[in-house]
Amino acid sequence: DQQRESSLKFQTRCIACGTDGLGYALGSVDGRVAMEVIDPAPEAQAAKYAFKCHRRTEEGKGEVVYPVHAIAYQPKYGTFATGGGDGVVNIWDGGNKKRLFQISRYPTSVAALSFSKDGQYLAVAASYTYEQGEPTGPTTDSIFIRPLADAEVRPKAKAV
C-alpha cells in the first residue's frame, strides 16, 4: 500500500487509474488535473505533471474556473475524458499532453463519465452539482450516451 498527499493544492474531486497500470489522473475543484505515477522511484516521479482545464472567459467576469467532477479512461487507447462544472467534456492524450477533442457543452455540470467496455461510447451524467450555490431555476438531470469516432479518442503519433 502507498499513501500520498495530493499534488494539487485544492480539494480533490475525482480520481481514475490509467489503463496501463502505471499511473492515475486526479481532478480538483480548481479546474486542474494531475497526472501521477504509481512507481515511487524518483526517476519515475519526474514524469508526473499537472495542467489547467475547465476554464472559460466570461464577459464581465474574466476567467472563470470550474471543478473537474469526473475522469474516465478510454479502454482501448488509454486516453481519458474529463467532465467539469462548465458542462464540457474534454478528451485528452496524456502521453502527448494534448487535448484531442472537446464535446459541446451539456445543459449543466458534468457529474460523472464512463466509457463502454469497447471504448466506442461515452456515458455522460449531466446534473447540477451546486458549485454555484442553490439553483436559481429548475434543474434537469440527464444521461447522454455518445458514440465516439476513433479520431476523437485515438492518441496522435508522438512528434520526433
State the gist of this model.
InterPro entries: Quinoprotein_ADH-like_sf (IPR011047), WD40/YVTN_repeat-like_dom_sf (IPR015943), WD40_rpt (IPR001680). With 160 residues, this protein is mostly beta strands.
Task: Tell me about this structure.
- The chain is mainly β.
- The chain has a single domain, classed as Methylamine Dehydrogenase, Chain H.
- It is 5% helix and 44% strand.
- The strands form four sheets. Strands 1-2-3-4 form a four-stranded antiparallel beta sheet, with no helix packed on it. Strands 7-8-9-10 form a four-stranded antiparallel beta sheet.
- Strand 11 and strand 12 form a beta hairpin.
- It is globular, with a radius of gyration of 16 Å.
- Keywords: Repeat, WD repeat.
- Pfam families: WD40 (PF00400).
- InterPro entries: Quinoprotein_ADH-like_sf, WD40/YVTN_repeat-like_dom_sf, WD40_rpt.
Q: State the end-to-end CA separation.
A: 37 Å
Total strands: the figure is: 13
How large a portion of the residues is in β-strands, by DSSP E? Answer: 35-45%
> What is the fold named in CATH at topology level?
Methylamine Dehydrogenase, Chain H
CATH class: Mainly Beta
Class per helix and strand makeup: mainly beta
**What is the arithmetic mean of pLDDT?**
92
Number of helices: 2
Largest sheet descriptor? 4 strands, antiparallel
Strand order of the largest sheet: 1-2-3-4
The CATH superfamily bears the name YVTN repeat-like/Quinoprotein amine dehydrogenase
Note the overall shape.
globular
From the coordinates shown, what is the CATH architecture? Answer: 7 Propeller
Order of helices and strands: EEEHEEEEEEEEEEH
Uncertain runs = none
- Rounded radius of gyration (Å): 16 Å
Count of the domains: 1
